[in-house]
Amino acid sequence: MAETVLSRCCRILAGLVVILCPLRALAGGSGFNVLVVVNPNSTNSLALGNYYCERRQVPPQNVVRLQNWTGGNVTWSRGEFNQALFAPLVNALSTRGLAHQIDFVLLSMDIPYQVTELGDVNSTTSVLFYGFKPGSATAQTSCGVPDFSSNSYAFSETRFRDSPPDTAPANCFLAMMLTASSLDLAKLTVDQGVASDASFPVDPVLLATTFDGLRSARSVLFADAIFDSRVQGKVELVSTNQDSPSGLNGLLGYQTGLAQFSMSPGTFVPGAMADSLTSYGGTILQPNGQTTLLAFLAAGAAGSYGTLVEPCADPRKFPSPKDYFYQARGFSLAECYYQSLLNPFQGLLVGEPLAAPFARPATGAWKSPGPGALLRGTTNLALQFTASDANHPLQRVDLFLDGTFLETITNYTLTKSNLLWVSVNGETISYAVPEDATLQSVAAGLADAINAHFTNALLSALAVGDRIELHSLDPAKPGRQVSLTTGASAGGATLDTTFVTASRRDFVDSPAAALLWIDVTNAILAPGDSLQLDVIKTNGARVTASATNFADAGSALLLAQSLALNVNSNAVLQEPDGLAAQVTGSTTNPASACTLILQAQTPGLGQSQIQVVLSTPSTHSWQQVITTNLNSNARDIAPRNHLYITAGTTNLSLSFQLDTAALMDGHHELTAVAYEGSHVFTRGRVTQSVVVSNSPLAATFVTLAGDTNAAAEGTLVFSVSANTGAVARIELFSTGGSLGEVTNQSAATFSVSGAYLGAGLHPFYAIVTATGGAQYRTETKWIRLVAREAPFPLALTGTAPLLSWPAMAGRQYDIFSADILTNEFLLRASVVPTNDFGQWTDPEPTHATRFYRVRSN
């Protein structure tokens, strides 16, 4: 409620400014590819969905409403999920022609986030992603991993549409929920996502190993993610022993393992992903003794993840730190999370799915037609797109009509006989692109060619999607001594459309140290049994450490722990060319087998040449002699580099024909979308308004009640009138699709409840269908429905006097007056404006001073 008090002696002039967000190039995804689901029984859900559509330019036909759902915002059964959400969603895709366009589904707050059946609990986002996964409660505890719950899309580095999860039903989506403890906080998450686009932040990501060893289970994954990110050179991943995120700021990401913590607003920069490996981080709206994922969003993260039921400390059920590597490649936030989750069935994903800080969209412009051009018959159109740089060529351009896919204008395939070459320390490998190749098949083929060439096993190549991971396996050469160059040419073809590029000119040394895992078998030991470890350093020096069992019946675990203690207290082994030891095993059953883990003191592949001999000098034969190097993780610590396969061209100047006779007459938006030629598939788009006129059919579209801004609780009234009496149907459309229709009338009046659509910016247009089948689409009118109002200025003119103020069409305004300012203001009248201007004339003017108050309801 807002009100303004004004004396008749005052004069106030005011103007009302309406700001519409311009279209922009969208990185890592597009509003055209998002389906927004709203709960019509929640004003917050409607308002948030509308806000997201405005910020991401989601077409109105991409909004779907839950059907017949009044059961709350926490839990629904699998049957209720299918009936209220999945069935109407799939039906909308089919009837609206969106089946091959939608990759992302966004659930706008106040929608249940848990799907249950026979005691099993899955998240709503995971069920939309790859179907309901039964078995976690019936066949085993929730700590288990049900059959068919592995996500084949994980770690694939491929386009989601090209490699959906193999256990998913026919319709599967990159699904996320957008919610928070308040509407304003949920909008903040949207803003953080949108603000991140192509921002290229230099802020660090922290990967925290906390005092909680069980919840720090992801720590074993940190080194590999840090290594890949160093090779890539775009995001700094930092491993830390940070026990609490309190007081941190300026972070692009944060992974931790804590049950309870606090964070401050402003901790994260736009586009950040952050989460904690704990049991109930996804139990966001229920009693919960743990800090939920909403804390990360409130602190400024654009996305987060948490599980709904006890998952146990299983890293497969939580995001891998590789999600930050995928983000730096340019993938959208939803793609990053789903590619880093091997078993997401118990986890809820919340945030802004399109956020892509490192995506590089193309820039472009329409060369013709011009804005508002009149198109008839077959017309020639022209476009210009330019890639962001030479390493991100453009492969495809699609044409959309009013936000719906119309046709592919051009699509550069990988040209047969194009020649790629890779040179490592002067040794060159060439590869000719075969027929019907894809980015993935070329990456695999080139990796095979590299492995076949280096038969000395000093270099290995592994294809991952459109990327090749190279490992230098020569322990005598650090990464800076291994050079890498690449190139491409047309080869035996006339067109050069296939390219290979490297992350850098030399290899990068690993930040991790060489490891050796030795399984020590279970045995009942006799007094005097011993373990001896001989370490031969890379300089040939030999160091010995040992441990002896003095108990009547000792255990292998206790003896191995004693050996590790002696190793770690040996001053010579603590030098940079030495090693450290630790033991893992069951503390509740010390008689069981255990594992002795030896780790070099200095990172790098060279230290893997440390040789160890583990023996049992005593007469007991429970352990044989083992002689080996620190080579359990040799591939992970080898110097590394990356190759990327791309296709397309850096400059696209397109001229093409469009048969407008196949389109309905009237007002349209033509949008061209250019896609980057890698699996990231970054989109850049340009839009032009046109008018199609191939028949005499036309119609006028007038707002009778409502204006640029109108009250969300009011009623909008529109009039549509065709220029012919031969009309079969007139239909009105806005956010969510059709709002109503009349048949066999040449003119119609439509009344629309603002509450049905909810607060936000809405497009309104009508389609007139003639009896002969011809159709006409009217111009689009944009109206912002406003739920609340700030204080507004009043103007008072004339001797009557006349009060006027900027108003919301459809909102009731009450006028009060008093002759003395300290007296009670009495209600004089109520006014409901039909446009953005409110007026009222005092029917009882007075020559004395009178004070007026106008209040919106």
How would you portray this structure in words?
With 857 residues, this protein is mainly β. The chain has five domains: 83 residues, Immunoglobulin-like (Sandwich); 321 residues, no CATH class; 100 residues, no CATH class; 120 residues, Immunoglobulin-like (Sandwich); 95 residues, Immunoglobulin-like, CATH 2.60.40.10. The chain has twelve helices and 53 strands. The N terminus is likely disordered.
Would you kindly provide a brief summary of this structure?
This protein is mainly beta. The chain folds into five domains: 3-17 and 789-856, Immunoglobulin-like (Sandwich); 31-351, no CATH class; 419-510 and 640-647, no CATH class; 513-632, Sandwich (Immunoglobulin-like), CATH 2.60.40; 692-786, Immunoglobulin-like (Sandwich).
- Helix proportion of residues, in percent? 10-25%
Radius of gyration over alpha carbons?
33 Å
Provide the structure class: mainly beta
- Whole-number average pLDDT? 91
**Oligomeric nature of the chains:** single chain
Give the count of helical stretches.
Answer: 12
Give the termini distance in whole angstroms.
6 Å
Number of strand segments? 53
Tell me the fraction of residues in β-strands, as a range.
35-45%
Query: Per the principal axes of the C-alpha atoms, what is the gross shape?
Result: globular
Unreliable stretches (pLDDT < 50, length at least 5) are 3-28
Largest sheet: 11 strands, mixed
Taken together, the total number of domains comes to 5
